[in-house]
Design brief:
The chain is an alpha+beta fold. Helices cover 55% and strands 14% of the residues. The protein contains 22 helices and 16 strands.
C-alpha cells in the first residue's frame, strides 16, 4: 500500500510540469515582445508629430517677422534720415511720429494674428528706459542683461536692430522688438504684442496631439515663459533635463495602460519642452492575452483534478470525512456519536477508531470540568462582592477626615453603606438636634413626615450598640412607642420585620444613627455579614469621633498657649500689639485667594501669629529703642526667627510652621537673613509671610516711624519687587488688595 502523500505528489508532478511551465514562459515572452513593439511605434508617431508642431510654430513666427520687420525698418530709417538732414532736431520720434508709426503698423494686413498693443521706449546711453508708454518697464536697466546689451553697445548711430520674437523681460509677454541707435548714444525701441498668440500655441498643440498634449514651454529666458497645460512637477523637470542632456526623447511608463514622452527641442526662438501623455489602449490586447493564458491554466487545472479524482475516491474522501468529524466535535454541545469509517486503508481506519475513543474520554472529562468551573464562578462572584465591599470600607476613613460638619459626615457615610448593605426596603439617617430627632436623608420612606412626629432622641440615646433584630407585625411600632393615625406611613412602620440600626456615638454623646429596615413579605433579608459590617462601621466611627474630640481639645490648648505667648510678646514689645493677629489674618486670607490647600492656609495663620515670638528673647531696650539701631543691635534683632524656630521645631504639630517662621526675613535676591537664601530656595509659605509681615509693618504705627498710606505702601512693595519680594506674589498681592478694597466699598 503506497503512502498517500507520495502517490498524490507523483500524479500532480506528472500532469503539471509538461504543460504549465512552457505555457507560462510563452505568455511572458509574448507580452514583453508585444509591449516593446507597441511602445516603439507609439514613440515614433509622437516624434513625427512633435517635429510637425515645432515647424508650424516656427512658420507663424517667421511670417510675423517677414511681414512686419521690413515696414518697421523703413519707418525707422526714414525718421533717422530726417534727423541727419537736421529737419527734425528735437522733434525726432515725437508723439506725432509714434502715433503715425502705430497707425502704419496696424494697417499691415496679417490674417493669422491681430496686433494687441504697440509700445515705444526711450533708452539712454547707460541702458535705462527713461520714457515709455508701457509703465511696467519704466526705469528698467537693460545693461544688466549682458548678453543683450553687449551687441547694442557695438552698434553705430543709425543702426537698426530687428530681433526675433522674444518674451518681455518683466511680464513674459511675446513681442516683436525693433531698435535704432540715435546720435546721442541712446536708443529708440518699439515693441509689438499680438492678440491670442499664447492661445494659438495651445490650440495648435491640441490640434496636433489631441488629448495627449500636456505641457509646453516656449522661449527660454525671462521670468515668465509661455506655458500651456499643467504646471511642471519635480518629476517632469527631472526627465526633461535628462532629455536635454541626452539630446533625445525619454519615455517613461506611468501606469498599466499609460505612459509619458519627454522631449526638449532647440529652435531659433528658444527651447520647446514637451510632455506628451500616451494612452496604450492596445495594452488591453495584452490583458486579453493574459486572461486567455489564465483560462488555459484553469482548463489544465480541471484536467488535473479529473485525473486526481480517482485517488480522492479511494483515499482523500475518507480522510475528508474524518476531518469533518474532527471539526464538528465540540465539547460544549451534547454528546455526538462518532461513527467508524469502513475503508481498506489500514492507517485511516485506525485513525477513525482512535478518534472515536478520544471523543468519548474528552466529553467525560469536559462534563467534570464544567461542574468545577461552575463552583469557581460562584466563588469568584462572591469574592468580587466582598472586594467591592472592602473598597467601600477603605474609602470610609478618607470621607470621615474630609468632613467637618457632623450632618454631612453622616449623610456621606450613609450613602456608602447603602452600596454595602443592599438588601433593604427602607433606610434612614437621623441627627440628634438636642430636643428633637431630625431625619436628614432616607430612601423608601418620606422622612419629612417622620420629622413632623418630633421624636425624642432619648429613645435612641440609650442604644449604645448596633441593633440587629427581627420583629413580628406591629412589634417594632410598639417597642418605639409610636402613636400614628392610619396612613401610608403607619402601614410602612407596622410592616417592619427586620431592623439594623447603627448608632453614631462619641465618648459620651449620642449624635444620631443610620438605620436599615426590611418589610414583611419582602424578599429583602439582612444577613449576619451585614451585621458584622454594621459593627465594624459603628466601632470605626466611634473611635474616629473620640479621636476628633481629643484633637479639638488638644487644638484648643495649643491656641490658648499661642495666644498667651502673643500676649507676653506684646507686654515685652507693646508697639507690635495687634501686629501678629493682623499678619495671621492677612496671610490666611491671601493663601485662600491663591487657592492653596486648607492645611497650608491654617499653617500660614499660625505662622503669622507666632512669627515674632523669638523677639521675647531680644532685649526690651533694643526692641523699643527710638533711635537708629547700631550694627550689633541689628545683628541681635536678626536672631529672632532662629529663636522662634528653635522653640517650635521639636513640636510635632508646629515643626512645619517653624520652618515658615525661620525664613520669613529672607529676601528674593538673596540679601535677607538668617541664611541668605534666594528665589525658590526660600519656602513658598515664607515668601507669602514676608509680604504680609512687611505690608502690616508699613501700614502700622511704630515708635520710630509713622505708618504709610496704602498708595505709598503699594509703591514700596512695587519698588522691592524682585528684590525683597517674589515678583509673581507681588502681582497676586495687588490683585488681592484690589478685591479687598472692592468688598469693603460694597454696601
Amino acid at each position: 500500500m503506497k503512502n498517500f502523500k507520495t502517490l498524490l505528489e507523483q500524479i500532480i508532478r506528472k500532469v503539471y510540469r509538461p504543460v504549465v511551465i512552457p505555457l507560462i514562459i510563452f505568455l511572458i515572452i509574448g507580452i514583453v515582445a508585444a509591449f516593446s513593439i507597441f511602445q516603439a511605434k507609439e514613440r515614433e508617431n509622437l516624434l513625427l508629430k512633435m517635429k510637425d508642431y515645432s515647424r508650424e510654430l516656427n512658420d507663424i513666427f517667421i511670417d510675423i517677422e517677414l511681414t512686419y520687420n521690413p515696414v518697421i525698418q523703413e519707418l525707422l530709417a526714414t525718421q533717422y534720415q530726417l534727423i541727419l538732414q537736421e529737419k527734425l532736431g528735437q522733434q525726432a520720434f515725437s508723439e506725432d511720429y509714434i502715433d503715425a508709426f502705430k497707425a502704419t503698423i496696424r494697417q499691415i494686413p496679417f490674417s493669422t494674428l491681430q496686433i494687441d498693443t504697440i509700445n515705444y521706449y526711450r533708452i539712454n546711453e547707460e541702458g535705462v528706459i527713461y520714457e515709455t508708454d508701457f509703465t511696467t518697464d519704466q526705469g528698467l536697466d537693460l545693461s544688466q542683461h549682458e548678453y543683450f546689451w553687449k551687441s547694442f553697445k557695438q552698434a553705430s548711430p543709425g543702426d537698426i536692430i530687428l530681433r526675433n520674437l522674444d518674451n518681455e523681460t518683466l511680464t513674459g509677454d511675446i513681442r516683436l522688438y525693433s531698435y535704432i541707435k540715435l546720435p546721442d548714444g541712446g536708443f529708440f525701441e518699439t515693441g509689438i504684442r499680438f492678440k491670442g498668440i499664447t492661445d494659438y500655441i495651445e490650440t495648435k498643440g491640441y490640434e496636433t496631439f489631441d488629448k495627449q498634449f500636456s505641457d509646453l514651454t516656449i522661449f527660454k529666458g525671462g521670468s515668465n515663459p509661455v506655458k500651456v497645460g499643467v504646471e511642471l512637477t519635480q518629476t517632469h523637470r527631472q526627465w526633461l533635463s535628462q532629455s536635454e542632456s541626452d539630446q533625445q526623447p525619454v519615455f517613461k511608463l506611468t501606469g498599466l495602460t499609460k505612459g509619458a514622452l519627454y522631449w526638449v527641442q532647440q529652435s531659433r526662438y528658444g527651447v520647446y519642452r514637451y510632455i506628451l501623455m500616451i494612452d496604450y489602449y492596445h495594452n488591453l490586447i495584452l490583458i486579453a492575452i493574459i486572461l486567455i493564458g489564465a483560462i488555459l491554466l484553469a482548463i489544465h487545472r480541471s484536467t488535473m483534478n479529473a485525473q486526481v479524482k480517482s485517488l480522492c475516491k479511494a483515499v482523500a474522501d475518507p480522510i475528508q470525512t474524518l476531518e469533518e468529524n474532527m471539526k464538528q466535535f465540540d465539547l460544549s454541545n451534547p454528546r455526538i456519536e462518532q461513527g467508524n469509517l469502513k475503508i481498506d486503508v489500514r492507517e485511516i481506519q485506525s485513525m477513525s477508531e482512535s478518534f472515536s475513543r478520544m471523543c468519548q474520554k474528552a466529553q467525560d472529562s469536559y462534563e467534570e470540568i464544567q461542574a468545577i468551573n461552575k463552583d469557581l464562578e460562584d466563588s469568584y462572584t462572591l469574592n468580587r462582592s466582598l472586594m467591592n465591599q472592602m473598597e467601600m470600607f477603605l474609602d470610609i476613613p478618607q470621607s470621615l477626615f474630609s468632613q467637618k460638619d457632623i450632618s454631612e459626615l453622616l449623610v456621606l457615610n450613609y450613602r456608602k453603606l447603602q452600596h454595602i448593605i443592599s438588601d433593604a426596603d427602607c433606610s434612614l439617617v437621623a441627627l440628634n438636634s438636642g430636643k428633637k430627632l431630625t431625619f436628614i436623608d432616607g430612601e423608601g420612606i418620606d422622612f419629612h413626615q417622620l420629622n413632623r412626629l418630633n421624636l425624642d432622641p432619648q429613645k435612641y440615646a440609650k442604644k449604645k450598640y448596633v441593633l440587629f433584630k427581627n420583629y413580628e407585625a406591629g412589634e417594632f411600632m410598639q417597642e418605639m412607642d409610636l402613636q400614628l393615625p392610619d396612613s401610608d406611613l403607619s402601614k410602612i412602620i407596622t410592616s417592619v420585620n427586620q431592623v439594623l440600626i447603627i448608632p453614631v456615638v462619641s465618648k459620651d454623646d449620642y449624635l444620631g444613627h443610620v438605620a436599615f429596615y426590611s418589610f414583611a413579605g419582602s424578599s429583602s433579608n439582612f444577613s449576619f455579614d451585614d451585621y458584622r459590617i454594621a459593627e465594624y462601621f459603628y466601632s470605626f466611627l466611634k473611635a474616629f469621633l473620640i479621636i476628633k474630640e481629643f484633637s479639638e481639645y488638644e487644638m484648643d490648648i495649643q491656641k490658648e498657649t499661642i495666644y498667651s505667648l502673643i500676649a507676653l510678646l506684646e507686654q515685652h514689645d507693646p508697639y507690635t500689639k495687634g501686629h501678629s493677629e493682623n499678619v495671621a489674618k492677612l496671610a490666611s486670607e491671601f493663601a485662600t485667594y491663591l487657592g492653596l490647600e486648607e492645611k497650608t492656609v491654617e499653617e500660614l495663620f499660625w505662622a503669622g501669629l507666632v512669627h515674632d515670638m523669638g523677639k521675647i528673647l531680644i532685649s526690651h531696650h533694643i526692641l523699643n529703642k527710638p533711635a537708629r539701631l547700631t550694627l550689633a543691635e541689628f545683628e541681635e534683632i536678626k536672631k529672632h526667627p532662629g529663636y522662634a524656630y528653635d522653640a517650635l521645631k521639636e513640636s510635632r504639630s508646629m515643626k512645619e510652621i517653624a520652618l515658615i517662621i525661620k525664613y520669613h526675613h529672607e529676601k528674593y535676591n538673596g540679601s535677607g537673613y538668617p541664611e541668605g537664601l534666594k528665589a525658590k530656595q526660600i519656602p513658598y509659605e515664607s515668601r507669602i509671610l514676608c509680604l504680609c509681615d512687611s505690608w502690616d509693618a508699613m501700614t502700622s504705627e511704630r515708635i520710630y516711624k509713622t505708618h504709610l498710606t496704602k498708595e505709598a505702601a503699594i509703591y514700596e512693595i512695587m519698588n522691592q519687587k524682585g528684590r525683597q519680594f517674589d515678583p509673581r506674589l507681588v502681582d497676586k498681592w495687588l490683585e488681592f488688595l484690589s478685591i479687598k478694597s472692592d468688598n469693603r466699598s460694597e454696601p
